[in-house]
Amino acid sequence: xxxxxxxxxxxxxxxxxxxxxxxxxxxxxxxxxxxxxxxxxxxxxxxxxxxxxxxxxxxxxxxxxxxxxxxxxxxxxxxxxxxxxxxxxxxxxxxxxxxxxxxxxxxxxxxxxxxxxxxxxxxxxxxxxxxxxxxxxxxxxxxxxxxxxxxxxxxxxxxxxxxxxxxxxxxxxxxxxxxxxxxxxxxxxxxxxxxxxxxxxxxxxxxxxxxxxxxxxxxxxxxxxxxxxxxxxxxxxxxxxxxxxxxxxxxxxxxxxxxxxxxx
Length: 264
Fold this sequence. Notes:
Number of domains: 1
Subcellular location: Cytoplasm
Keywords: Cytoplasm
Helix content: 25-40%
Strand content: 15-25%
InterPro entries: CutC-like, CutC-like_dom_sf
Protein name: PF03932 family protein CutC
Strand order of the largest sheet: 1-2-3-4-5-6-7-8
CATH superfamily: Copper homeostasis (CutC) domain
Shape: globular
Distance between the termini: 28 Å
CATH architecture: Alpha-Beta Barrel
């Protein structure tokens, strides 16, 4: 997974901007600053977890089309049958609350895609809403071979993959991302992972059809003097906070995407 120069490819006219948000307010900020859709989750600092049904419904009311991250716990992406059944139920609940799509992923212990789990999750989505879009999330970046892993997708009903090309950031993984896109021309490859507005032109040139970023900033603390650490590890007052969607970053990403597509 070396990250050399990515081969050039024309940026598609349909290139879109997705913002990861953790609240209805974040969805609204994303919409007001040019996002085409949002991925709603909670626990962004943990890599994202399934949000509540109430949050999904409120985000649907306040923002652009909502795709919901379905991940029942932090940690690895190897799930047992009970966890898969729980996530299938969360898929159904999210779509019934108005989401346009779901974002799922699962691996086997040896680093391949867990096609049985993915088939169950995608099937739950199609049974609930035949028009729902199903995205494979960044579990693929933990696969032993992200490019080869995508060969398992045909027939599962998954038409989109969110990936950093198996690297810490999408721009570092742009060569692998380009190989993923080239090997799967019918797949919507969304570049995500540490994306900054200045990365967007390079990611589209590598073959991404859309870009995904959290556009987040730390919320201003609203607490009295003094702080009792909460949770394991004795979190400090500076770290024990939450993130909010930064509209200035969303707007900058929108401008970068539009400028790139316009100049192609």
